[in-house]
Design brief:
Layout lengths: L1 E5 L7 E2 L2 E2 L1 H17 L4 E5 L10 H17 L3 E4 L6 H4 L3 H4 L4 E4 L9 E5 L2 E8 L4 H8 L6 H17 L6 E7 L1 E2 L18 E2 L9 E5 L5 E4 L2 E3 L16 E7 L5 E7 L6 E6 L1 H6 L10 E6 L8 H6 L5 E6 L5 H5 L2 H5 L4 H12 L7 H22 L17 H8 L1
Parallel strand pairs: 1-4, 4-5, 5-6, 8-9, 9-12, 10-11, 12-14, 17-18, 18-19
Antiparallel strand pairs: 1-15, 2-3, 7-8, 13-14, 15-16
Helix pairs in contact: 1-2, 5-6, 11-12, 11-13
Length: 411
């Protein structure tokens, strides 16, 4: 049986300020075309159909269109809910959709009830395991402890028990949305540790022919029988090195697995670049990124003036800007507290401005504002106590009154 394995569509999600709805539509066009061209016999989607529990209307309409197109092909589709989905909302109407060949598995209680499909070699049992939050499903599944390994293990026990009661030679596919040990993470996946230790061993899937995983956004092979398809699009710059794809999996009569990667359309490449502003604007090596979505990290010692606007002149699709000043090792590790000794309140305040701005000192207007602020604080303190609070020029005055508030905050 030929199976197309995909996951983590995250319909409705964007990349920084850019909508990815058109790119998601292009991916679904590609998926339908692949099903037709490669004679796929079943489509499996391992969770995170949507990006959030209450998705925007445009995302719902896109999903609805995809379901109609897949149903029209007559190719069965098995889908599970992920940790980004609302399982209850996604599962609405699932019983009615069964007749159209769309099988939504969102109820933990149905883990051991497969979708049975057949080919020339007999039955293939597809078990859809929705995302299992330990604190919510532990009792229902009879898990021994409140952990991801325990609840997924309990669900797989149901799968193996059902499979054991079926005809010899029945092949099996499990869809699961989980963080399996050995998988490589990115910044895009929502942390699962709120429900206990997040990772589960790949051995939890022992006894089935193929485990189609979702959650991690990079396409990965943990074992020949346990794979992540990854997301079809990059949803953060941490995925800039990913090759986005789906798995085309062939299960032979004996349940052996042969898998081929099917590349997904790339709406625009992602690039992470780093250097001083002038280097990024002038270096010819960055010419290949001029049409990419760009994340730039500036290493200038002092923050340049209007860096985003200047970078946009070369990289019109820049989306993110970060600052990581590169300083001399001595400056980077020097104790700021030691620098306060013997300094006046005015000098301390000015030094602090230069310190937090990576070497760009206070200008004349800023120095005047700091001086006026310190004078006002001392005047208020004098009015309350009846004693003048001088700035001794050694930093000692700061400890006597309101100047203490300023320098303590600086520390």
């Amino acid at each position: 049986m030929r199976v197309l394995h995909t996951s983590d569509w995250h319909l409705g999600r964007g990349l920084h300020r850019v909508s990815l709805l058109d790119a998601q539509r292009a991916f679904l066009d590609h998926l339908v075309a692949t099903v037709e061209a490669r004679e796929v016999e079943a489509v499996v989607v391992a969770g995170d159909i949507y990006d959030r529990a209450v998705p925007p209307l445009a995302a719902v309409e896109l999903f609805d269109t995809a379901l109609h197109r897949l149903a029209a092909l007559g190719v069965p589709t098995v889908m599970t809910s992920g940790n980004h989905d609302s399982a209850r909302r996604l599962g609405v109407g699932s019983g009615l959709m069964e007749g159209a060949g769309i099988h939504l598995r969102t109820d933990p209680a149905s883990c051991g009830t497969p979708v049975l499909l057949s080919d020339a070699h007999g039955d293939v049992a597809f078990y859809g395991l929705p995302y299992l939050e330990p604190s919510l499903v532990r009792e229902e599944l009879g898990a021994e402890t409140r952990s991801h390994t325990a609840v997924l293990g309990a669900a797989m026990d149901r799968v193996r028990a059902d499979l054991a009661g079926r005809a010899p030679g029945t092949r099996s596919v499990v869809l699961a949305h989980a963080f399996v040990t050995g998988g490589e993470v990115s910044d895009s996946e929502r942390d699962l540790t709120v429900g206990g230790v997040a990772s589960v061993p790949a051995s939890v899937f022992d006894g089935v022919d193929y485990a189609a995983l979702g959650h991690l956004h990079g396409c990965q092979t943990l074992t020949e029988r346990v794979r992540y398809s990854g997301s079809p699009l990059a949803y953060s710059f941490s995925e800039s090195g990913h090759r986005k794809s789906m798995w085309l999996v062939d299960l032979d009569a004996a349940g052996s697995v042969a898998a081929e990667r099917i590349d997904c359309p790339v709406p625009r490449p992602l690039a992470r670049i780093r250097g001083t502003l002038e280097e990024l604007l002038a270096d010819p090596a960055h010419a290949r990124h001029e049409d990419s979505w760009v994340e730039a990290t500036l290493t200038d010692a002092a923050r340049p003036y209007e860096p985003m606007a200047r970078l946009e002149t070369r990289f019109p699709h820049i989306l993110a800007l970060a600052f990581q000043p590169e300083r001399e090792e001595e400056d980077a590790h020097a104790s700021y507290a030691r620098k306060l000794r013997g300094r006046s309140d005015q000098q301390i305040a000015e030094d602090f401005v230069g310190h937090v701005r990576a070497g760009r000192d206070a200008d004349t207007d800023e120095r005047d504002m700091l001086s006026a602020a310190l004078d006002a604080v001392r005047a208020d303190e004098a009015a309350e106590t009846g004693h003048a609070v001088p700035d001794t020029g050694t930093g000692a005055g700061a400890s006597a009154g309101a100047g203490h508030t300023v320098t303590e905050g600086a520390r």
